[in-house]
Amino acid sequence: MSEVQQTMNTAPPGTKEYEMHRTIDRIAAAHDEAMRAIHRANEAFGNDAEFPVLLARLQEAGASLREAKNQAIRIKSRVDANAEESAQRDVVAAAGDLGVME
Q1: CB within 8 A of 17, min separation 6: which ones?
Q2: What is the pTM of this model?
Q3: Side-chain half-sphere of 78: how many Cα atoms within 13 Å?
Q4: What pLDDT was estimated at residue 101?
């Protein structure tokens, strides 16, 4: 996984948060590879009559991967926000149980 660009993944391995980070990193790596494939295809097939079709498909793949990464980031952000709200509610409830909130 040395070529996979990694996000700031500080979550413990095996957790849902860790796996979300890994998934986002792998989608980003796939996008990067699609962009490299466009460059290599241009060098290898650039003069072929069918190259424009190949190029369009590779560009669509890159765009789809970029959209998939953005969607994964939105999902993770929502999960993180929900977890933070839940943790805050737990703190408030615990403070109330201890009589701190009176």
Answers
A1: 11, 76, 79, 80
A2: 0.73
A3: 6
A4: 53
